[in-house]
Amino acid sequence: GNVAGDSKNDPPMGAASFNAQVIVINHPGQIGNGYAPVLDCHTAHIACKFSELLEKIDRRTGKSVENNPKFIKSGDSAIV
């Protein structure tokens, strides 16, 4: 998404890290801590790193099904 803010009063700032919900669509093998995908945002390609897999979640309900999973694979949704 995009970020909008007041440039004169508390402007938005870059983040060193953030948590994201990801859904693994089509990936061979398993994804674990330290995985480094490239994010595509409009025309930018930005390298990032999954420093920690926080929880695996049910794609339909959004509820946590496993804390600190060792890996995720195709079809899984997770907070990283």
Automatic annotation (TrEMBL):
Alphabetically list the UniProt keywords. Elongation factor, GTP-binding, Nucleotide-binding, Protein biosynthesis
Q: Which domain of life is it from?
A: Eukaryota
Q: InterPro entries, alphabetically?
A: GTP-eEF1A_C, Transl_elong_EF1A/Init_IF2_C
Q: Which Gene3D superfamilies match?
A: Translation factors
Which GO molecular function entries does the Swiss-Prot or TrEMBL record give?
A: GTP binding; translation elongation factor activity
- Could you tell me which residue ranges the GTP-eEF1A C-terminal domain spans? 17-80
Pfam families (alphabetical)? GTP-eEF1A_C
For whether the record's keyword set contains Glycoprotein, the answer is no
Q: What CDD domains has UniProt attached to this entry?
A: EF1_alpha_III (cd03705)
Cross-referenced PANTHER family, in alphabetical order? Answer: ELONGATION FACTOR 1 ALPHA, TR-TYPE G DOMAIN-CONTAINING PROTEIN
- Please state which protein family the record places this protein in: Belongs to the TRAFAC class translation factor GTPase superfamily. Classic translation factor GTPase family. EF-Tu/EF-1A subfamily.
Which protein is depicted? Elongation factor 1-alpha
What organism is listed for this UniProt entry? Cordyceps takaomontana
